[in-house]
Design goal:
Oligomer: single chain
Number of domains: 1
Distance between the termini: 46 Å
Number of strands: 0
Radius of gyration: 18 Å
Structural class: mainly alpha
Order of helices and strands: H
Number of helices: 1
Length: 47
C-alpha cells in the first residue's frame, strides 16, 4: 500500500475525517499559542 493511502473504515467519510482534522489542528494551534511566550523567553535566555 502506498504511504499516502490508509485503509478505509466503514461508515467514515472524507467529511468526517476533515472535521476531525480541523478540530485536531485548532487544538494544536491553541497549544502552541499557549506556549509561545515561554518559548520566546527561552530563546532570549530569560527562562
Amino acid at each position: 500500500m502506498p504511504t499516502f493511502a490508509s485503509p478505509t473504515i466503514e461508515g467514515v467519510t472524507l467529511h468526517d475525517t476533515d472535521v476531525i482534522y480541523g478540530i485536531y489542528r485548532e487544538t494544536m494551534i491553541e497549544a502552541q499559542r499557549k506556549q509561545l511566550d515561554f518559548f520566546k523567553r527561552r530563546m532570549r535566555g530569560d527562562a
